[in-house]
Amino acid sequence: MGKNIVEKIFGSHLAHGELRSGSPVELHIDQVYTQDATGTMAWLQFEAMGLERVKVPLAVSYVDHNMLQQDYMNPDDHLFLQTVAAKYGAYFSRPGNGICHQVHLEQFAAPGKIALGTDSHTPTGGGMAMISIGVGGLDAATVMGGSPFALTMPKVLKIHLLGKLKRPYVTAMDVILEILRRLTVKGGVGKILEYGGPGVRDLNVTERATITNMGAELGATTSIFPSDERTKFYLAAVGRETDWTELSADDDASYAEVIRINLGKIEPMIAQPHSPDNVVTVKSLAGTRVHQVCIGSCTNSSYQAMKSIASILKGKTVSEGVNLLINPGSKQVYEMIAREGLVADMVAAGARMLESSCGPCIGMGGAPASGQVSVRSYNRNFKGRSGTRDAFVYLASPVSCAIFALKGEMVDPREAGIVMKKFKEPSQYHINRNFLIPPQQDTSDVKVIKGPNIKDVSVKDALKDRIEAEVLIKLGDNITTDDIMPAGSKVLPFRSNIPAIANFVFSNLDATFSSRAMEAKEKGGGIIVGGENYGQGSSREHAAIAPMHLGIQAVIARSFARIHRSNLINFGILPLEFVNAGDYEKTSQGDRLVIGNISGVISGSQEYVVENATKGYTFRVRSTLNERERDVVVKGGLLPYTRERSGKA
Ligand code: MIC
Ligand code: SF4
Q1: Ligand 2: which residue has its CA nearest to atom 3?
Q2: 436-437 and 91-93: which strand pairing?
Q3: How far apart are CA 364 and CA 371, in angstroms?
Q4: Which of 51, 272, 342, 570 maximizes the CB count within 10 A of its CB?
Q5: Each residue of 291-346: pLDDT tens digit?
Q6: CB of 362 closer than 6 A to ligand 2?
Q7: Distance between the two ends of the chain, CA-based, in angstroms?
Q8: Secondary structure of residue 607 in the 3-state scheme
Q9: Residue environment code for 156-180, b if the CB has 16+ CB neighbours within 10 A, otherwise e
Q10: Closest ligand relative to 382 C-alpha
Q11: Mutation probe of ligand 2 site: the residue of 66, 120, 121 with most atoms within 8 A of C-beta
C-alpha cells in the first residue's frame, strides 16, 4: 500500500515502534532549535546531563522573544545562550537576526528532515516539507543529548486543496483562518495535517509556511506540505538548492480523514476576540473601528508579507486614529525591504518600525490602550496576551491589516478601492549569515556565563503513592498556557528563575493562586481542575515547572493539549482525565481530594478512585500514559528518569 508524506518521513527516522496511530513511536531527529524564552531552561537541562557536545546533526539557539533589555536580566540570558551554544556545538542566532521560525525556514529547514523546536510554532517548517514539531525544553534537551524523540503516533488528516487563491486580496492567512473556523482550536489534537491536491501548486513556500505555522492553533502535532518545484525554487532563491529533494504522497496513500478546500472560494477572514477559531468573514465586520494594527510575527513576516503591505501603504497615510506597528521577521527580510526602498514607503505612511523579533505578539511592548481594538497578522488573540486585559484583539491577513490601518476601520479588502500589485516571488533572496555564529570544533576554553538571574533547574521528588490535596483552582475549557503562566514584559525576564516566575502562575485569573499554593504545599500540595483542551497554546514548560515548584501534584481535566500534557509528565505532575464528564461539574475549588494506591493503579488499569473528602463521594479518573511516560512520572520527571538511565543518579 502507498505511503503518505508523514509515513515516509517517520519511516526513514524510526528508532522504535510501529507507525500505527495511537502507538508509541520513537524518532531520530535531524535538527533541534531553541528560542531564548524557553531556551534558557532547555540549555540548563542539557548542561545538567553532563555531556560534552550536542548529539544531533544541527542545533540552533535563537534569541527573539526577550528583547527589551530593560535591565540586566534579558541580556544575561542572551549571554548565557551564546556561551552555552559555543560550548556545546550549536549555532547561535544573535539578537536582531529575527524570529526563530522565519530564520529557520530561510537558513536551515529542508524537505524530508525532522526538526524539534522549543516553541509551539515550530510547524512553520512544514511549509518546507519538513516534519517540525513544537516541544518543551526538556524534550529538546534529552534529544540534544542523544535520545530519540518519543511521541504517540498521530492520525494523518489530509487537506486536499483545489483551485487558486483570488490574489492579491485573499492570502494564505485567510486559508488557515478558514480551516480554524471549520476545525476549531481542538480540531487538530492528536493529528498531523498533510496538505495535498492540485491547489498545493498555487502556494509558494512562505505561503505554505503561514498555513503550517498557524496549524498550531488547531492543536495539531504539526502540518506538512509536499516538496515540489516551488520548494526547489525557494531553496534555490535562498542559496540552498542542494537541500532540495522531491517528496510527495503516493497516489494510493491512505488517510484517517480527508477535508477538501477550494482555494478559489476562500474570502478574507478574521478571528474575533478572544480565540483564533472565532472566525468570520471580514465583510461581516465591515465598519468596525480599529485603533491599533500590528503586522509581523512568525505567521506573517516574510518578504512577501512585507512587500504586499508596502504596496498598500505606498504614498498614503495611516488613519489618524490608528497606531501601525510592523516587525519584519528576519534581518534578511528587513535588509531586503530596506534596500528596495519599501521600508521608506512604510515609514513615510506613518508606520512604527520594530525590530525583527516577536515583540507585541508576546506582549513585549506594543500593548493596545484600554478597551481598544487591535488587529494583528499574528496567530493568537487570547484575552490579556497583548498586555491589555480589556483590549479586543482580532487576527487577519497582512493585506487586510494594512488596509484597515489606512481606513481606520474594518473593510473587505476587495472593496476598499486600494489597488495593489500582485506579488512575484523573487528568484534570488538577499542572503546574509553574519548574525549566525556557527559551532566550533574546539570548545575547551569556552566558559559558560551565567548571570545572577539564572537559577538552577528544580527537580521533583518521585511520585507519591497517595495524593491528598486541595483543589486550588477550577477552570473552564480551552485554558491556555498564557492563562497558566502569563508572558509579557513583566514576566518573561524571569524565565530562567523558577522561584521568581512561580509567583505569576494564574496571576491574570486569580491573583492569590501562588500564595495559596505555597501554603497548600506545606500540607501535601494542590490539585488543578480543568475542562477540555487544558493547556492549549504555547510550548512553555514554565506552565508545568512553576506549578511543580508550587507543589501541584496532579491536574484533573476533561482533556489535555499535547505539548502541555508532555510538559506535565516531564516535570512529574500526573495528568488525569475525568472518566465521567459529570464529575467535573460536581468538583469545586476548595474540595479536598484523596487518590490512593497510585503505584498499583498506574502500572495496571490506570483508572484511579478519587475520594472527595469534603463532599463525601468518590469518582473515577484515568491516566493515559504509555510505558515510558509512566516511568517518567513515577521517577518525578524526565530529568531524574534520564539521569537514572544514563547511570548518573
Ligand atoms: C508563544 O507564542 O506563546 C510563544 C511565546 O512563542 C511560546 C513559547 C514561550 O512561551 O516562550 C510558544 O508558542 O511556544
Ligand atoms: Fe514569537 Fe509570536 Fe511566533 Fe510565539 S507566536 S514565536 S511570540 S512571533
Answers
A1: 298
A2: antiparallel
A3: 19
A4: 570
A5: 999 999 999 999 999 999 999 999 999 999 999 999 999 999 999 999 999 999 99
A6: yes
A7: 46
A8: strand
A9: bbbbbbeebbbebbbbbbbbbbbbb
A10: 1
A11: 121
Q: How far apart are CA 649 and CA 639, in angstroms?
A: 10
Domains and CATH numbers, the chain: 5-265 (3.30.499.10), 269-415 (3.30.499.10), 467-645 (3.20.19.10)
Provide the annotated active-site residues.
Answer: 64-65, 119, 380, 538, 540
For 324-335, the pLDDT digits (tens) are: 999 999 999 999
Q: Which residue CA neighbors atom 3 of ligand 1 most closely? A: 538
Measured CA to CA, the distance from residue 567 to residue 543 in angstroms comes to 8
HSE-CB of 33 using CA atoms within 13 angstroms? 29
Nearest atom within ligand 2 for CA of residue 362: 7
Asked whether 298 lines ligand 2 (CB < 6 A), one says: yes
Q: Residue 546: helix, strand or coil by DSSP? A: helix
The Cα 395–Cα 377 span in angstroms is 6
Query: Residue 99 and residue 78: Cα distance in Å, rounded?
Result: 15
Any ligand 1 atom below 6 A from CB of 549: no
Pocket test for ligand 2, best of 119, 217, 300, 377 (most atoms within 8 A of CB): 119
Q: How far is the CA of 605 from the centre of ligand 2 (A)?
A: 40
Q: Give the number of C-alpha atoms closer than 13 A to the C-alpha of residue 200, restricted to the C-beta side.
A: 24
